[in-house]
Amino acid sequence: MLSYMASTMALAPALAPVIGAGLLLFFGWQAIFTLLALYAVAMLLLLIFAMPEPLPAERRQSIQPSAILANFRMLLTQRTFIGYTLTNATSFAGLFAFLSGSSFVLIDFMGLTPFQYGIGFMLIVAGFFVGSLVSGRYSHRLGRDRLLQYATLMCALAGTAMASLAFAGVYAAWAVIGPHILFLVGFGILMPQSMAGALAPNPQCAGSASSLFGFLQMTVAALIGTLVGQFHDGTSQAMALTIGLAGVLSMASFWCLARPASRQAETRPSPAK
Questions:
Q1: Which Pfam families does the entry mention (predicted)?
Q2: Rounded distance between C-alpha atoms, residue 86 and residue 184, angstroms
Q3: Are 221 and 99 in contact (CB under 8 A)?
Q4: In sequence order, what are the residues at sequence separation of 6 or more whose Cβ sits closer than 8 angstroms to the Cβ of residue 72?
Q5: What is the predicted pLDDT for the residue at 273?
């Protein structure tokens, strides 16, 4: 289910750059923020008037800060949760690095127009869409950890290939977009599987686990993504190196943290009844 949700979510970032480029071309940059404001108001109205609360009243709990903090403390000491969360967060950092630096690299350095950049971004997000469908299709057949083996390897190879091309002096749009399509296929497989791995052992605090998973994803990605800005030299090297580092760290997080913790949990004897 998470995989198919992710594939649906991919439609928004696929269409957004093309819509943004069209608004910029025909109406000016102010139109982008006007559309965002109108969209936000529309979503708020839908949330208030058209989205009922799905949780039955008898199962709802009042928000207790002490209980939430206790859940966070427990999750941060759970190797399974940390392993799968870092596997996702470090690979997401590769996407974050691309979002941070790709417009400067592809438009300012390589000379693409905003519309061409939007088309390239659309192709990249199509990779995420394909990966999400693959994840949903083969999750029962191959299992979570087998899919994560393939996905993290794909991210590491794609990121390393992009960095190698950049440092070899291959400054062409295909040398950035091509490897990142492969990276996003891997991330499309990886994201729902790592989320399932992090949340499945914690059904009693699924809300806390989900929120901490998202917080750590954004925090780690932001920290790694700052490398693009710190070391940007006008070429694609800093961005490509950061994406390569993100892919390698994702694979290392899976093999060194998530997989051992998962296997240990599977072999642990169940308590006697």
A1: MFS_1
A2: 17
A3: no
A4: 208, 212
A5: 43
Averaged pLDDT of the chain: 88
- Are 129 and 5 in contact, with CB atoms under 8 Å apart? no
Cα–Cα–Cα angle for 162, 130, 10, rounded to 5 degrees: 90
Q: Which two tokens stand for residue 65?
A: 């800060």
**pLDDT at res. 204:** 82
Which of the given ranges, 139-143, 179-183, 231-235, has the highest pLDDT on average?
Answer: 179-183
Q: Write out pLDDT tens, residues 193-219.
A: 999 999 988 888 888 899 999 999 999
Q: How far apart are CA 163 and CA 7, in angstroms?
A: 27
Length of the chain: 273
pLDDT tens, position by position, 25-46: 889 989 999 999 999 999 999 9
Which parts of the chain fold into alpha helices (H)? 2-9, 11-27, 30-49, 65-76, 79-103, 114-142, 144-167, 173-199, 206-231, 237-253, 259-267
Q: Return the closest-CA partner of residue 237 out of 163, 180, 155.
A: 163
The CA distance from 270 to 268, in Å, is: 6
Separation in Å, CA 104 to CA 7, 115, 153, 230: 27, 14, 28, 14
Distance CA 129, CA 188 (A): 7
Query: Could you tell me which CATH number the domain at 2-22+90-265 has?
Result: 1.20.1250.20
Residue 178 one-letter amino acid: G
